[in-house]
């Protein structure tokens, strides 16, 4: 598979979506987000998930041209209904509205129900940071992780995002509450690699680094063990209370990850600081982190989001490879 450059991949994905009943606007935005995720080094939520995304469209779980609508407004807190539209379109709209509210009022919250998978949550964190806004966001999911001490999945791995703007490189963390997201497990599985750390349980109940075994058992380890389990429960609970949408156990009554609930909370730091102050605070904290002595001599200490920026810059310059098996599936659509 030759390397693809940004506009090549974006154009190909857009054309595929137009042939699957997407209108121009939705196809363009989704293609941009899938491409951006791939170039950021997160193919698990880019090209690797594109075919399964269109499969859900064809099966009627995702309505390709549905738009989110406002349900209720409480000043700077709003409830929206995603109407089962494409998750990236809904999340882009909701995060954008939260950013608008923050710039107007200092803080804005948009809670979204009846939406679909947002792909890479970091997309919306980077977008907020580009607009000078802090973002806290999360989503619930279908049950794919056991509560701490249990064998069967009853929790979502409920990914969340924290993003802070900074002139010399935004600080952004985008993480699932399982030690390895299912997208990451899929990437390791496709590449035939073992995980670098123990990530969950196999069919015999033993801890393993085998991504295929963990995907099959739906028994990944939560981050922080019992602490990650507790966070997953609270993220689910708060998302449902704020959005009026479905909880993980209700989403689990269906077959796929649809009709989920999400929260986007934005803050405009310029209400309390000037731009120079914001950068000085961020730079001082990052400097204190990076000067810590590494375990392995010569290794660099990275702050959240730094590797993503470096990967994106390199891929924009050089292009990206798409796994052969993934590209064959996309081409065959």
**What distance separates the N and C termini?**
17 Å
**What's the CATH first level of the largest domain?**
Alpha Beta
Low-confidence stretches: none
Number of strands: 9
For the record, the CATH architecture of the largest domain stands as 2-Layer Sandwich
Portion in helices: 40-55%
Number of domains: 2
The average pLDDT score comes to 96
Radius of gyration: 20 Å
- What order do the SSEs take from the amino end to the carboxyl end, as H and E? HHHEEHEHEEEHEEHHHEHHH
What is the structural class? Answer: alpha+beta
Q: Output the strand order for the largest sheet.
A: 1-2-3-9-4-5-6
CATH topology grouping of the largest domain = Ribosomal Protein S8, Chain: A, domain 1
Sheet with the most strands, sense and barrel status: 7 strands, mixed
Key attributes of the depicted protein:
single chain, 333 residues, alpha+beta, Hypothetical Oxidoreductase Yiak, Chain: A, domain 1, Ribosomal Protein S8, Chain: A, domain 1, 2 domains, two-stranded antiparallel sheet, 12 helices
Would you mind describing this structure in some detail?
It contains 12 helices and 9 strands. It is α+β, with helices and mostly antiparallel strands and 333 residues long. The chain has 2 domains: 1-65 and 309-333, Hypothetical Oxidoreductase Yiak, Chain: A, domain 1 (Orthogonal Bundle), CATH 1.10.1530; 67-178 and 222-291, 2-Layer Sandwich (Ribosomal Protein S8, Chain: A, domain 1). The strands form 2 sheets. A 7-stranded mixed beta sheet has the order 1-2-3-9-4-5-6, sandwiched between helices. A two-stranded antiparallel ribbon has the order 7-8. Helix 1 (6-18) runs antiparallel to helix 2 (24-39) and helix 6 crosses helix 7. It is globular. 45% of the residues are buried. The model has no long low-confidence stretch (mean pLDDT 96).
């Amino acid at each position: 598979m030759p390397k693809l450059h940004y506009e090549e991949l974006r154009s190909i994905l857009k054309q595929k979506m137009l042939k699957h009943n997407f209108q121009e606007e939705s196809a363009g935005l989704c293609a941009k987000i899938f491409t951006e995720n791939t170039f950021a080094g997160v193919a698990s939520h880019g090209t690797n998930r594109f075919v399964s995304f269109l499969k859900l469209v064809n099966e009627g779980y995702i309505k390709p041209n549905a738009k989110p609508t406002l349900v209720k407004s409480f000043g700077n807190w709003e409830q929206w209904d995603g109407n089962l539209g494409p998750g990236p379109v809904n999340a882009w709209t909701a995060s954008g509205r939260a950013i608008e509210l923050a710039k107007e009022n200092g803080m804005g919250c948009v809670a979204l129900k009846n939406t679909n998978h947002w792909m890479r949550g970091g997309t919306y964190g980077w977008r907020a940071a580009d607009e000078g806004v802090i973002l806290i966001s999360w989503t619930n999911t279908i049950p794919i992780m056991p509560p701490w001490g249990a064998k069967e999945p009853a929790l979502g791995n409920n990914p969340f995002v924290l993003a802070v703007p900074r002139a010399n490189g935004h600080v952004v963390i985008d993480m699932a509450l399982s030690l390895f997201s299912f997208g990451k497990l899929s990437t390791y599985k496709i590449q035939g690699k073992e995980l670098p750390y123990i990530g969950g349980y196999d069919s015999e109940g033993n801890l393993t680094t085998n991504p295929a075994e963990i995907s099959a058992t739906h028994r990944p380890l939560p981050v922080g063990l019992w602490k990650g389990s507790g966070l997953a429960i609270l993220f689910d609970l708060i998302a449902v209370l704020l959005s009026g949408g479905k909880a993980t156990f209700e989403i689990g009554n269906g077959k796929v990850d649809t009709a989920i609930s999400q929260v986007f909370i934005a803050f405009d730091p310029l209400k309390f600081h000037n731009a120079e102050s914001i950068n000085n605070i961020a730079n001082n904290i990052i400097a204190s982190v990076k000067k810590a002595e590494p375990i392995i001599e010569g290794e660099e200490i990275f702050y959240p989001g730094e590797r993503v920026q470096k990967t994106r810059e390199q891929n924009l310059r050089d292009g990206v490879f798409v796994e052969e098996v993934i590209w064959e599936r996309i081409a065959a659509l």
